[in-house]
Design the sequence.
């Protein structure tokens, strides 16, 4: 009987790891002490998508198609040490479970920035950026159906600035 309970708990833990996404992480931490949180709804993206051209300054990148494809933006910025540890652990679990793949990692002066995507060769359904500093963790998640080429072009352009 104990073996069955242990197996059931392990299965539920695995299911819980697969159920995590930007929205659930936002809901879990947005009301915590020393946490700033921002959510942008699909309605706001539809409104922004009505603007004809949203070009990146000094670039030929048009943000319009990317913005129109978004269904949610979730931002968590935390200086709460407990939240920082558990948030980092949850993102690590998503990656280890094979849900997200690392797009890139950058380290500078004690800060680490990691970017992850979830999707197919053509479409990105979720983009996560996790920034880790000494006493602060920032989590940003875009959900939608973003064209991978457009997103990668935008990231490449911004990384060379």
Sequence:
């Amino acid at each position: 009987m104990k073996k069955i309970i242990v197996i059931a708990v392990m299965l539920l833990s695995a299911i819980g790891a697969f159920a995590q996404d930007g929205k659930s992480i936002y809901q879990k931490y947005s009301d915590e002490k020393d946490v700033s949180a921002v959510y942008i709804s699909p309605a706001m993206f539809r409104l922004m998508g009505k603007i004809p051209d949203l070009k990146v300054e000094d670039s030929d990148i048009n943000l319009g198609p990317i913005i129109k494809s978004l269904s949610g933006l979730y931002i968590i910025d935390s200086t709460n040490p407990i939240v920082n540890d558990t948030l980092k652990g949850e993102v690590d679990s998503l990656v280890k479970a094979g849900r997200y793949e690392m797009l890139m990692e950058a380290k500078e002066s004690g800060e680490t920035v990691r970017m992850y995507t979830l999707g197919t060769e053509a479409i990105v359904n979720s983009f996560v950026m996790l920034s880790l500093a000494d006493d602060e963790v920032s989590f940003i998640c875009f959900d939608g159906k973003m064209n991978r080429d457009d997103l990668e072009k935008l990231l490449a352009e911004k990384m060379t600035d």
In short: The CA atoms of residues 2 and 8 lie 10 Å apart.
